[in-house]
Design brief:
This protein is of the alpha+beta class. The protein is 21% helix and 35% strand. Bound molecules: flavin mononucleotide.
Length: 198
Amino acid sequence: MKKVIKSDLKKIYQEEMKKCSDAVKDGKHPYHIFTFSSIKDKKWPEIRIVVLRDFKFNPNVIYFNTDYRSPKIAQMKNNNNCCALFYDGIGKVQIRFHAKASIHYQDSIAYEIWKKTALQSRKCYMGEMNPSSEIQEWHPNFPITYLKKDPKLEHSEEGFQNFTCIKLNVIETEILKLYHDGHVRFNIKDKILNFIAP
Ligand SMILES: Cc1cc2nc3c(=O)[nH]c(=O)nc-3n(C[C@H](O)[C@H](O)[C@H](O)COP(=O)(O)O)c2cc1C
């Protein structure tokens, strides 16, 4: 019978965290996009896909970018408890992070990331309308002149007024890895690994 011990968990954990780091620069990596959930109001959770922009291991910190006017910002201001869910369909691994979000807007952290943000991404922050607001007819919510091209650097700077970096300070990491001969599930909290029933 297969036996799984804590050193096996540690190995899986380290492998998966390395994959999270690798995914930042690899657009085809299954962890390059993830599902982020926040609390919409007392009754409803809310979820959406975002792009992984950076990942720091031990303590685990996840970064993504967003528009300051989007509803998720108000949700996090109201309650910064949140979850991030990653899935690798080839490796059959699900990672659930429980985290506290911090919002970086018009500060040095946001500016350092903005400086490295590509023109193509910058135009997404140049829309006149609040993201997620209802509109009468279709509009891409960036200047129409940039439908098929990127803005010049100087004009793109306007986007910084809406650009926001979200830092997710992970408090618990939970991994589920599926195997034909018995799934492995565990969590890591305060650097301690615990088996969980799959
Ligand atoms: C592949 C993909 C990547 C996305 N990446 C981001 C992202 O990095 N940041 C972001 O704010 N929204 C991103 N979105 C859009 C969000 O899923 C969501 O629709 C939007 O942020 C509005 O969310 P909210 O109304 O909950 O604030 C992405 C959507 C897709 C399909």
